[in-house]
Write a structure and sequence with these properties.
By secondary structure, the chain is an all-beta fold. The protein has no helices and 11 strands. It starts with a strand and ends with a strand.
């Protein structure tokens, strides 16, 4: 299992930006598909973005044009740049890893998870 630790969450006003990081402790990071999910209180965990080994990425419709996922394989680190944040983006954001090097948007397809980092966007 990959060990994943998220950081970079916080409180920001609507229209602001945050950059989340996910540090991975594992031997296969460069081969993993990596993803970001989020979960608000009382709601289901939902897909945000994913990136494969080559850097190709996919996004949920709700964040297209505002969020950018990236990875630095030399540093075993995943990033999520979040711009134009809105109150509906408020949630705990989770980093996830999938050993199969193909895209996946379902939480059950990912085997390793971080503890989450809180993002709160005020009106």
């Amino acid at each position: 299992q990959e060990q994943l630790v998220e950081s970079g969450g916080g409180l920001v006003a609507a229209g602001g930006s945050l950059r989340l990081s996910c540090a991975a402790s594992g031997r296969t990071f460069s081969r993993n598909t990596m993803g970001w999910f989020r979960q608000a209180p009382g709601k289901e965990r939902e897909f945000v973005a994913a990136i494969i080994w080559s850097g190709g990425s996919i996004y949920a419709n709700s964040v297209k044009g505002r969020f950018t996922i990236s990875r630095d394989n030399a540093k075993n680190t995943l990033y999520l740049q979040m711009n134009s944040l809105q109150p509906e983006d408020t949630a705990v954001y989770y980093c996830a890893a999938r050993r199969d090097p193909t895209h996946a948007t379902t939480a059950t397809d990912y085997g390793s998870w971080g503890q989450g980092t809180q993002v709160t966007v005020s009106s």
